[in-house]
Design a protein that fits this description.
Elements: H1 4-10, H2 13-48, H3 61-87, H4 92-99, H5 102-136, H6 142-152, H7 158-166, H8 169-196, H9 204-225, H10 234-238, H11 245-251, H12 259-273, H13 288-303, H14 305-324, H15 330-350
Helix pairs in contact: 2-5, 3-4, 3-5, 5-8, 5-9, 8-13, 8-14, 9-13, 9-15, 13-14, 13-15
């Protein structure tokens, strides 16, 4: 009879890989169930309002499959292999077995499968977001939010304070590129890291659950309850164009080089045609952009105080950018930070089995080096 150790060694790497993937997927099962329930709820909303053609469930498979399911995984494995070749000599084969162990590959492959589910989740979010103005009968809260915003800023719309000290084409281009490009890489790159890296295993489920909660609570529920379009569309939804006219004129001063104006036109065009598209749908309150970086900042603070300070600094940059670029009222960001803080600590307390653990375990460097 084989001993336990000998029996373990006799199992083929393929079977070990399959067993590891199965273990990871069982842990992730609540997340898959949540995506399924959310998708069915979104479909029910679209049929309820008689707009099933606004469904966006498959919108993200095309543009996201190559970077997240092919290119980035290849780079991850290539980097892992390269580090072994550079750092090791005599024990190189052992190190390679660690990097490409069934456990490491299982985390990568199961994480990629979870990312496919997240694509469905994002498509559902977009579908519901497209439907919100039809469900509520238009954008109802822009005047109230803009007035409250100005009151909190001393009687002046906050963008005027920002433009008094930051109005320049260079700063505009810097914030524009960061808000549209760097933000996406940061938020979804971190998400990919969490779902595929063994270092993130202790808090993977909590992180992804929080990620989904931010989108649903901030981007669907609160956005629907206090539906607003934001400064960029204030004139179009209220008929009062003069309030943000100076800001929009500055934003449109060089349309060929500024992504924000192009994307705002894209969103309004889809809204008028009642069509869906990548990242389509208009809503301002609260800011999902701010909410997601705030979520990352709280997780970063669990790793180290210094990393948390840097991450919260980036929250400030995104909050300023959202107002500067005309996407949001300042209060949209304030509320996002408060909501995310409550959700973060509440979810951490509820998931008591992971209380005190960090999303990235520095001690697990050997198998997570890729």
């Amino acid at each position: 009879m084989l001993s336990g150790n000998a029996h373990s060694q006799s199992i083929s790497p393929a079977l070990k890989l399959a067993a590891e993937i199965g273990m990871r997927m069982r842990e992730d099962l609540p997340l898959y169930v949540a995506v399924l329930v959310y998708a069915l709820a979104g479909l029910a909303v679209l049929f309820w309002i008689g707009q099933p053609e606004m469904a966006s469930y498959g919108q993200y498979f095309g543009p996201w499959s190559y970077p997240f399911l092919l290119f980035i995984p290849f780079v991850v494995l290539l980097v892992g292999w390269s580090r072994v070749v550079i750092r090791f000599d005599r024990r190189r084969s052992l190190a390679l077995r660690q990097v490409f162990s069934p456990r490491r590959l299982a985390h990568l492959l199961s994480g990629m499968m979870l990312f496919v589910a997240i694509m469905v989740f994002q498509g559902t979010f977009t579908s519901i977001k497209n439907a919100l103005p039809l469900v509520r009968g238009g954008f109802l809260y822009d005047p109230a939010l803009a007035d409250l915003d100005a009151w909190l800023a001393g009687g002046v719309d906050p963008w005027r304070h920002l433009y008094a000290v930051l109005r320049s084409d260079f700063i505009f281009k810097l914030l524009d590129g960061n808000y549209g490009g760097v933000w996406f890489l940061y938020c979804f790159g971190t998400l990919f890291l969490v779902v595929t890296s063994p270092r993130a295993a202790p808090a993977r489920v909590r992180y992804v659950a929080m990620f989904m909660l931010v989108w649903v609570l901030c981007g669907n529920i609160l956005a629907g309850l206090f539906i607003s379009a934001g400064p960029a569309f204030y004139g179009a939804v209220t008929g009062h164009n003069e309030r943000f006219a100076e800001q929009l004129a500055f934003l449109a001063s060089d349309q060929g080089q500024h992504n924000v104006v192009v994307f705002q036109h894209y969103l309004w065009s889809l809204y008028e045609k009642r069509m869906s598209g990548i990242a389509s749908g208009i809503s301002a309150f609260p800011s999902v952009h701010v909410a997601l970086v705030t979520m990352n900042a709280f997780f970063a603070a669990e790793i180290s105080k210094r990393l948390g300070i840097i991450a919260f600094g980036y929250v400030g940059i995104i909050m300023v950018s959202s107002v500067y670029l005309g996407w949001h009222y300042a209060i949209d960001g304030y509320v996002s930070v408060v909501v995310v803080a409550l959700c973060h600590f509440g979810l951490k307390w509820l998931m008591s089995a992971e209380r005190g653990q960090v999303p990235f375990d520095p001690a697990d460097g050997a198998t997570a080096s890729a």
